[in-house]
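Review form for a predicted model. The reviewer records the input and the model, then writes brief findings.
Reviewer: anonymous (R2)
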Amino acid sequence: QVHLVESGGGLVQAGGSLRLSCAASGRTFSTYAMGWFRQAPGKEREFVASITWNGRSTYYADSVKGRFTISRDNAKNTVYLQMNSLKPEDTAVYYCNADVRGATKPGPDWGQGTQVTVSS
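Model under review:
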């Protein structure tokens, strides 16, 4: 129902910043709560941030509160994740997800992921 493509990942020094983008195709994008999840090698995929369909409310994992900001532009069919004060433990593949439930649970549609590597 929604095709998602992430971009913006890369290599950054600890303390640096990156902005991830998730471009969506699908006529129902604006009705979905959207989210970002991440997965490090050998670890389970975990919730990072989500945003309601109208952008009114946002939710963050405790580990990223105060450092990451999720936003969306429904006119552009795009959701963003601004990541500041990056730490090595933020290193992971970051995935965009459509139709997040209960603020932290993923819906069925995933992007392909974009690698974020934070060096010490």
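Findings: The radius of gyration is 13 Å.
Further findings: Residues 51 and 71 are 7 Å apart (CA to CA).
Recommendation: see findings above.
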